[in-house]
Design brief:
2 copies of one chain form a homodimer.
Chain A lengths: L1 E7 L6 E7 L2 E5 L1 E3 L12 H7 L4 E4 H6 L3 H6 L3 H5 L5 E4 L2 H7 L3 E4 L2 E5 L6 E4 L1 H11 L3 E3 L7 H4 L8 H16 L7 E6 L5 H12 L5 E4 L8 H12 L8 E3 L5 H9 L4 E3 L2 H7 L2 E4 L2 E4 L19 H4 L4 H9 L4 H27 L2 H7 L19
Helix pairs in contact in A: 1-15, 6-8, 8-9, 12-15, 14-15, 15-16
Chain lengths: 384, 384
């Protein structure tokens, strides 16, 4: 994997860059649609290409449990399996173990948990997380991290130092057991909760391990938006400038712009598709809840500036509302695609704002980027 | 509306034709995907165009109840509402009144029934059916027919003659109240159940009313496949040769080929999409139930001869099976699109078989067209 910085912002820590992987490249700052189980919910790979997505995220945790990483490998790896020949990043499962498992027990060896599929008992260690991700074959893979809820890492919490220290020990084991370092870039994950002293210790220690990229983890796990902003600002500025910085599981448009200004290069979030399935459409001025009666006769499209199939095809808000009321699957599909296009258009405009140092015109074109939206996004993809 | 016969089969009653409407034309024999509530379930209009669909069916009954034909009209009519600028046919609701209504009472004035949406009481008369379809603005609209279950029109059934006679009286009232005859072609519907004497009376009387096209109704409502074949053969041959003949709600591939040979030009059926949603994929050799464990490691595509996104994209049967087991919406989407493409490819090959009188090579390329498949299809689109 290769990362080149093409332009640095004059007034902020933001930068425009290019990541090259064995399956092609993508420009940064980049937003990755989430394809948890090797599918972005309801959206075909043709539609993903058309909205401008260049890299997808999938979850090793989900794929290990179903259909099994061995099967994916046998069928040619994740790219062939899901029919996406561009870059893919897999998350390790550290986050999912906490957000999904009905029961989990953690010790230094790893995590023991029950499968959300059938309740069977599974074990995930750093070595196992690498084995799974080596089998899946994504271009970027994530170290197994210990990612506890915010309340457990707060200043009075019981696991204040544990998560950071364990994440660091596991990172070394991940690196040592990674079998395909020439094809798959391993990213380390900074932990430390909302405690900036712990964050400093974590970012210094994690980034001291020579790796192709680093991520900020343990955010959007229950803390306030202000706390997220503080942690991201603090952490991003302490990560190596020459490597891609990836903020995991964030977020709304205002969260993205704030993080980009802090120097973050990569994002993933389920918001565009999850909101799309729930009849929530993103527009530059804010979100529309399409079930609302005020859209009953609304003849306009979701966003006149959007070129997604629904907006370019002239589909009215009233029609999309009708699809949701009639429980037509096409509603979730069309609004998910629209929302994904919204995010990709935002990323293009963010890249332009960096190049032209035109942050005020960005905020003018995208009023939704100004105000913090709450609650923030998480990558958690709870089963249906 | 204009219908031109381009080629007549030498050995059968089949013909290749072309229908021109105010929204463009389509070749016959034609298969119409079913977009009951102004949406083909899970499939975008871009995908419909790409699979080769040139005319869609929607249900006036459903649209009257939700979102209301007045709203659709206010938003520019059905074409604008659903973003499809090609030909559309709307069914009148005669069939749905019987298949969907929790309670319905029929008399000569029309049908009183309860809405499947909210249980409210509605009344549908021939005049009302025209008013609704005039508002929706489809290119082809259907007369309101009295379409009872097969058991009620069997030789010993209580409504042996009623349905036929009432359908005929209603047809005259439909024609008299049709407000847009220059833009919307009204088709009459032949009834008569499985009784060929009644069918003869119905086809003669209905086709004696000068209309741009005629349909065979009251089939696939519970009778045997043999009975359907007998009725279709008998009826089609007695319909005017110069007008399009439309067989409503049928069916499997073998049903289509048999009906085409009998002289039928147009078809609609929910099978491609309903089966697609239920993990049933059509192939020339027969249907695959993708949940079956034998597809767990199946690396092949659904149909190597298919050019749908799933097959052309190399997506394995194992991947599609995974999507259904993981309850991923993308499974129903991809298999619905595949099945629709399967039907459109079949129609193209049927047209070729007519032109070249090559029925045996059609049967060779599409073994599934040889055997009657049961149970047969109906247009019933039960909620949700």
């Amino acid at each position: 994997m290769n990362f080149t910085i093409l332009h640095e912002s004059r007034s902020t820590n933001a930068r425009v860059g290019r990541v090259e992987t064995p399956h092609g490249g993508f420009d940064t700052p980049a937003f990755m649609p989430v394809g948890t189980s090797a599918a972005v919910k309801g959206v075909t790979v043709e539609q993903l290409r058309a909205v401008g997505a260049r890299i997808l995220l999938a979850n090793a945790y989900h794929l290990m449990l179903r259909p099994g990483h061995e099967l994916v490998e046998q069928l040619g790896g994740l790219h062939a399996f899901m029919g996406w020949d561009g870059p893919i990043l897999t998350d390790s499962g550290g986050y999912q173990v906490y957000s999904l498992a009905r029961m989990s027990r953690i010790d230094d060896d790893g995590v023991t948990f029950r499968s959300f599929v059938d309740g069977s008992t599974w074990h995930l260690s750093p070595e196992r997380a690498m084995e799974v991700q080596n089998a899946l074959g994504a271009d970027i893979i994530m170290a197994l991290d210990d990612c506890p809820p915010a309340r457990e890492t707060a200043e009075t919490g019981p696991r204040r130092r544990d998560a950071h220290e364990r994440t660091l020990r596991w990172l070394e084991r991940c690196r040592a057991s990674h079998r395909r370092p020439d094809e798959q870039a391993l990213f380390g994950i900074v932990q430390g909760g909302t405690d900036l002293l712990l964050r400093r210790a974590s970012v210094e220690a994690v980034c001291n391990v020579e790796l192709p990229g680093y991520a900020i983890g343990g955010v959007a796990v229950g803390e306030s938006i202000e706390a997220i902003r503080r942690v991201v600002d603090f952490t991003a500025s302490r990560m190596p400038a020459g490597k891609p910085r990836y903020l995991m599981g964030v977020g709304y448009e205002s969260d993205l712009v704030a993080a980009v200004r802090a120097g973050v290069d990569m994002f993933d979030c389920v918001l565009p598709t999850r909101n799309g399935r729930n009849a929530n459409a993103f527009t530059p001025a804010g979100r529309l809840h399409l079930r609302n009666a005020r859209f009953r006769e609304a003849a306009g499209v979701l966003d006149p500036g959007c070129d997604c199939p629904a907006c370019a095809g002239g589909l009215s808000r009233a029609y999309l509302r009708h699809l949701f009321l009639a429980r037509e699957m096409l509603g979730p599909v069309l609004v998910s695609v629209h929302n994904l296009r919204h995010y990709q258009r935002l990323m293009l405009d963010i890249q332009r704002a960096i190049r032209e140092d035109s942050w005020s015109s960005l905020a003018e074109a995208w009023p939704a980027t100004r105000e913090p939206a709450s609650p923030s996004c998480t990558t958690s993809t709870r089963q249906p």
